[in-house]
Design goal:
Elements (H helix, E strand, L loop, with lengths): L5 H8 L7 E3 L2 E7 L3 H18 L4 E5 L2 E6 L9 H13 L1
Length: about 90
């Protein structure tokens, strides 16, 4: 899978993925869950979708704050797989 160029990433972040930001070669989104258990449930839902896609985000859980980080490590940056999973995560959280 080919790396996206900066214009493609910028277009996604200013469009459907406006809740996400870019940190180097990674897409990042932070979500505040209503409660710790609801946050854990959101992580479980994301994990199911990620497992099905065989594309796994880095997830940091800090009480009710969830941080999702997406990058295609095998390609060394952001690919269409990351944009697709980011969109799915948006639909779940």
């Amino acid at each position: 899978m080919a790396l996206l160029d900066q214009q493609e990433i910028d277009n996604a972040l200013s469009g459907d993925l406006s809740a996400w930001s870019q940190d180097g070669d990674t897409l990042v989104r932070e979500v505040e869950a209503p409660s710790f258990l609801e946050g854990i449930d959101a992580v479980r839902r994301v994990a199911e979708v990620a497992e099905e896609a065989d594309h796994h985000p880095d997830i940091d859980i800090r009480w009710r704050t969830l941080t999702f980080r997406l990058s295609t490590h095998s390609e060394g940056g952001i690919t269409a797989k990351d944009l697709a999973l980011a969109g799915q995560i948006d639909g779940l959280v």
